[in-house]
Design brief:
There is one protein chain. The protein is an alpha+beta fold and about 300 residues long. The chain has four helices and 16 strands. Strands 15-14-9-10-11-13-7-6-16 form a nine-stranded mixed beta sheet. The protein has a five-stranded antiparallel beta sheet with strand order 4-3-2-1-5, with no helix packed on it. A two-stranded antiparallel ribbon has the order 8-12.
């Protein structure tokens, strides 16, 4: 081979075909052509067997090519490819399903927590901003002015309160024992329908039966003092601006003393369905100079 062609292949991976004199078949050597020695007539080849020399006059042909990898990759049959593909697809679909279920659980949980948070927030605002206020407490004595027979509590909603259901209001009295009384629609009336004292409010117009005569150990009487929209009388609802009197029967609640004597202390609470209640603690005066006694 001519010199100019041989040197152009130095440093390249080549396929070298050689044929020794007297041999019928040619042999092939593959490797990197390291050097060409025209003087001695050899080429230096770095093959898989190591570094070696070939005589130039035995070379039939030299073909450059790519170096083969050290380890051959295993051929995969078509059915094996399909099997691996189905397995990968199953794993992929399973991962998607798991992710979808996890996302659904997270979304549902977050929505539930959001609704609960809103509900708790609204209830908290209602509890904090709503409530009842006791404006005044008066007592009504017996004819001898020795015992208070009935106690009237004047109530109004706090500023900004939501509407209250009178049927769910409880009025408690603590004296030796705790008594809890509730609303009764049969003992509800407007104030001064017969132009008389609130303690002589009849249970209906023209009746000779007073509301206080209907009170007992479990029920209090209710008189609407200010009810512009008739919410108390029509729906038993107390809203902003309304005022009402709740009348307790002290004689029935304190039967051992036939009412509330002088220098006695009682306490209790007017509790609505939601919000703050009105708490009271009063001590009766030393002398009842009038039938109507201011206690608050």
């Amino acid at each position: 081979m001519e010199k100019k062609y041989m040197e152009r292949l130095v440093g390249k991976y080549c396929k070298i075909v050689t044929k020794e004199p007297g041999e019928e078949r040619a042999s092939v050597v593959t490797g990197i052509l390291e050097d060409v020695d025209y003087k001695d007539g050899f080429i230096l080849v770095d093959s898989e067997q190591g570094l070696g020399c070939l005589r130039i006059n035995t070379i039939v042909a030299i073909k450059p090519g790519r170096k083969r990898p050290e380890e051959k990759t295993k051929d995969i049959k078509k059915d094996e490819k399909g099997f691996v593909g189905i397995g990968t697809l199953i794993v992929f679909i399973a991962m998607i399903l798991i992710a979808a279920v996890a996302a659904s659980v997270l979304i549902t949980t977050s929505e539930h927590l959001q609704r609960r948070a809103q509900s708790v927030g609204l209830n908290t605002i209602r509890e904090v901003s709503s409530g009842l206020v006791i404006d005044d407490i008066v007592g009504y004595t017996n004819a001898e002015k020795t015992r208070i027979e009935y106690i009237a509590f004047q109530l109004r909603p706090r500023a900004g309160s939501q509407d209250f259901d009178m049927e769910l209001i409880t009025l408690s009295l603590l004296y030796d024992e705790l008594h809890v009384t509730k609303f009764d629609a049969a003992m509800l009336q407007n104030v001064n329908i017969d132009n008389q004292s609130v303690f002589f409010t009849p249970n209906e117009t023209g009746s000779s039966t007073w509301l206080i005569n209907l009170t007992n150990t479990t029920r209090f009487a209710t008189i609407a003092i200010h009810d512009y929209d008739n919410s108390i009388m029509n729906t038993y609802g107390m809203n902003d601006g309304d005022r009402a009197l709740l009348i307790l029967n002290a004689t029935a609640l304190i039967p051992g003393e036939n009412g509330l004597a002088t220098r006695k202390t009682i306490s209790g609470e007017v509790r609505p369905e939601t919000g703050a209640g009105g708490i009271y603690e009063i001590t009766t005066p030393a002398v009842y100079s009038e039938r109507v006694v201011d206690l608050w």
